[in-house]
Amino acid sequence: MAGSAELQKAAELYDRLQKLSCPGLEGVYVTEPLNVPELLCTPSAHRLDILEWICTRAYPPLQDLFSTLKESQAELKVKEMAKLGFDLMLCNSEDEDLIKGHVSPSRQLSFMGQLLDIIETCGDVSGDSELQPVTPGFFPGHLMIPDKNFATYARENEELLKELFSSPHFQATLTPECNPWPADLKPLLVPEELQKRTLPCSKDYAISDHIQELQKISLSLEDLKQECLFLCSSVPGEDTAIQRLSLALTDFHQLITAFTQVHENEFQEHCGHSAPQMSPSGPLFQSAHQLLTKCCKELEAIAQFTETSSTIEEVVKKREQTKESWGGGRTATLYEKITELKQQYELFQSSLQD
Question: Which residue among 66, 144, 158, 351 is least enclosed by CB atoms within 10 Å?
Fold first, then answer.
């Protein structure tokens, strides 16, 4: 039975589907709130039709693919919907149980809700702005700004990829003529000011200095890009070290831009605090720790001594209570033998005195 949170979430999802005029809800009348999770989260052909409609609205090209499939190819539809969820970074590519409805209701409702967020955010996207599933490796999630919608990101990513793959610089990196870098280009990679610069030891050193250095590096990377125009005449070929270096520099530039933005918006107001005061009681704690360690060792020695004394006492008592033969036929304990010898010694002394 679904919990109150899942019932509320299912009801909200049902209302959103009604507002979007989902054809799978036509003629469906829900009489009790408990019927909504059963409709949306219980494995059935009706539920799969609703999810299929949601996926085709989020990614319209799926409609053309599904229209060519037969009813017996339902498994292929499930795989395509799982692949769409993977492209949108909502689930794994092998997560077919989520599509079929064999996982927890909360996870199913969350997956459908995220797809509806994409539909409502993008609206009616057409033309060259059509939503395309993005590859996780090229999705700049760490650079997102909240005032842009999903369609804008998709369009910008598509334009960025087109510019990257059509750029002559990208094609030139496949078969470079300059490998490794010549000596006259090495100073361009790291400015002379950075080579001679040493980190200050002052406590007032601020993060703003690091930001300025990162901005200088970013400008140097742009200058380096202009200096490498001679690579444009190369012919496409196999992947090379220059290609990997170019991609690494691009990623580094994006990280610098992201860090600069985060610092200006989030971290800058927290960078003026003074350093914390260190406690002067450090040596006192160390001395107390050493004394406690010695005390523990002494207590362990006393415990061992007590245990040894108890063992000796037990051995002596056992010796006193055990009867043994003392060179004759009669057996006696150690105490009885000592008493007998004492009496014999006293008789011997008395006979000597007489």
Answer: 351
Residue 158, in any domain of the structure: no
Calculate the dihedral angle through the C-alpha atoms of 64, 70, 71, 76, rounding to the nearest 10 degrees.
-70
Do 299 and 252 sit in the same domain of this protein?
no
Q: Is the pLDDT confidence value at 20 over 50?
A: yes
Which domain, by its residues, includes 307? Answer: 286-314
- Look up the pTM and report it: 0.38
Mean pLDDT of the chain: 76
pLDDT, tens digit (0-9, with 9 covering 90-100), for 244-276: 877 888 888 888 888 888 888 877 777 777 766
- Are residues 214 and 231 located together in one domain of the fold? yes
In angstroms, the CA 339 to CA 349 distance is 15
339 and 292 belong to one structural domain: no
CA–CA gap between residue 214 and residue 221 (Å, rounded): 11
**Quick one: CA dihedral 257, 263, 264, 265, positive or negative?**
positive
* Pair 246, 234: CB distance under 8 Å: no
Model pLDDT for residues 344-353, shown as the tens digit of each residue = 888 888 888 7
Do the Cβ atoms of 188 and 249 come closer than 8 Å? no
Helix (H) or strand (E) holding 203: none
In this structure, is residue 303 part of a structural domain?
A: yes
**To 5 degrees, how large is the angle CA 12–CA 15–CA 18?**
155
Question: 290 and 351 share a domain?
Answer: no
166, with CB counted inside 10 A (0-12, 13-18, 19+), is: exposed
Contact 151, 121 (CB under 8 A): yes
Q: Tell me what pLDDT residue 294 has.
A: 94
Is residue 131 in some structural domain?
Answer: no
pLDDT (mean) for 69-97: 87
Number of domains in the chain: 4
Q: Count CB neighbours of 73 within 10 A.
A: 12
The answer as to whether 102 is a domain residue is: yes
Most confident residue range from 57-71, 113-127, 133-147, 211-225: 57-71
What are the Cα distances from residue 77, in Å, to 67, 70, 83, 202? 10, 10, 10, 64
Residues 91 and 172 in one domain: no
Q: Are residues 16 and 112 in the same domain?
A: yes
